[in-house]
Design brief:
Blueprint lengths: L6 E6 L1 H4 L9 H16 L3 E6 L2 H9 L8 H25 L4 E6 L7 H16 L3 E6 L13 H11 L4 E6 L4 E2 L11 E2 L1 E2 L27 H13 L3 E6 L5 H12 L4 H13 L7 E3 L7 H13 L5 E5 H8 L11 E5 L7 E7 L10 E7 L4 H7 L7 H5 L13 E2 L8
Parallel strand pairs: 1-2, 1-5, 2-4, 3-4, 5-9, 8-10, 11-13
Antiparallel strand pairs: 6-7, 9-10, 11-12, 13-14, 14-15
This protein binds glutamic acid (GLU).
Length: about 425
């Protein structure tokens, strides 16, 4: 091993594993993926796969061409297909003496911070054993309210959980373009992105498909950009590259090792030159933002992405500034302007901020999340009041705060270094 050893998450969509027409497993491509990942393991890197395909494998097994709309039927298909998917991976990895493990996650499993850390520890233990964990959403038990929804998001969450260095989103286009390359021949590839939030590209939701989104998968470029934002916010550099050429991962990892000490500007230039000279395959690299301290960022990430929000608390700009300044405060009842929706104590709630004094309540923008010490009904009764009045109004005062500062999280606003 010459370069540094990285923790790398590789996300494989259904279209990388299943033929869109015949719905049969793409065994040749899977073999190439397996060979590539075993090479990376032998170079000393720690590898985690996030693999879709359970539902498609299940459909093939029972001879279905069209995905049923009934949730129970989809769940049943996932349970048929997941075993076959892992079985095939195991057959292929076994030829190269590489052990694998199956990890199935639902959002429910990580709703509690201890459980979130526990799932992380299990994956680390597997990596320490030299095993490649293969993660998928536990579709058989997930219902809509607790679903990650797509494996792009799940892969970003997995990468954040294990503090991965790199996340590869393997897809059916080489990279991100500024427009749909299939419709616009002048669409330009975007090679390096410093801050996903600043991107100005047309994506599938705007009906000018930036690319992707096959008949067998659930993702497209939009979910990839969301995943890239999630992952880069916690310091995970994210790469989009072609799933039919998995060996590109080796070239990109080698290039990453060579460019590690370069500044962002130098990286832009170097990657551009190498891609143009065809010494490096076309790909998009979303640079990870600088990491917070690990403990702080774990809890923050979990608050922002591990939990589903129930309702919202509306606060004004002054309160928002107090919650985000260096010695940040907790959220006091006096800071709450309005309560939306219904939730219990300890649930995760969105924090919405009224942008200016002149703005109305419905102009409030969601900026972050918090876990509350009181229910929606209780907060409605104490909002705008001093903490000393809580006991008089509610008959008890579990905390002077509506949310403690450790239970409040906002995504980073800084740009990349
Ligand atoms: N978990 C689903 C499956 O294994 C796929 C979800 C996705 O395509 O993003 O079939």
């Amino acid at each position: 091993m010459t370069g540094k050893a990285y923790t790398i998450v590789v996300k494989l969509g259904t279209s990388s594993l299943v033929d869109e027409v015949t719905r049969e497993p793409r065994i040749a491509n899977m073999s190439l993926i397996v060979e590539t990942l075993v090479k990376l393991r032998r170079q000393g890197h720690r590898i985690i796969i996030v693999s879709s395909g359970a539902i498609a494998f299940g459909m093939k097994r029972v001879g279905l061409d069209v995905k049923p709309s009934r949730l129970a039927a989809v769940q049943a298909l996932a349970s048929i297909g997941q075993g076959r998917l892992i079985g095939l991976f195991d057959d292929l990895f076994r030829q190269l003496n590489q052990a694998i493990a199956q990890v199935l996650i639902t959002r429910n499993d990580i709703m509690d911070f201890t459980q979130y850390k526990n799932a992380t520890n299990t994956i680390h233990e597997l990596l320490d054993m030299g095993v490649i964990p293969i993660v998928n959403e536990n579709d058989t038990l997930s219902v809509a309210e607790i679903k990650f929804g797509d494996n792009d998001t799940l892969s970003a969450i997995t990468a954040a959980m294990v503090h991965a260095d790199y996340l590869f989103l393997m897809t059916d286009v080489e990279c991100l373009y500024d427009d749909n390359p299939r419709a616009n021949p002048n669409a330009k590839p975007i090679l390096v992105v410093d801050n996903v939030g600043d991107l100005n590209v047309k994506t599938d939701t705007e009906n000018a498909v930036g690319t992707g989104g096959s008949a067998v998968g659930t993702g497209g470029m939009t979910t990839k950009l969301i995943a890239a934002e999630l992952a880069t916010n916690v310091g995970v550099t994210t790469i989009i590259t072609l799933s039919s050429q998995p060996q590109y991962i080796l070239d990109v990892v080698e290039n990453i090792q060579q460019t590690e000490s370069l500044t962002v500007a130098q990286k832009h230039e170097y990657i551009q030159t190498e891609v143009l000279a065809k010494r490096l395959p076309l790909h998009t690299r979303f640079l990870g933002l600088p990491r917070d301290s690990q403990i702080k960022s774990d809890r923050k990430f979990w608050l922002l992405h591990g939990l589903k929000t129930r309702g919202a608390l509306i606060i004004d700009q002054g309160c928002y500034d107090a919650l985000t300044r260096k010695n940040r405060a907790g959220l006091l009842p006096a800071g709450v302007v309005e309560v939306e929706g219904s939730f219990h104590e300890s649930e995760c709630v969105a924090l919405k901020v009224i942008p200016t004094r002149e703005s109305s309540l419905n102009e409030a923008e969601e900026r972050g999340h918090c876990r509350v010490n009181y229910s929606s009904m209780e907060i409605s009764m104490i909002k705008g009041m001093k903490s000393s009045e809580i006991e008089n109004v509610l008959g008890f005062a579990d905390s002077e705060y509506v949310a403690h500062r450790d239970n409040i999280a906002f995504p980073p606003r800084t740009t990349s270094a």
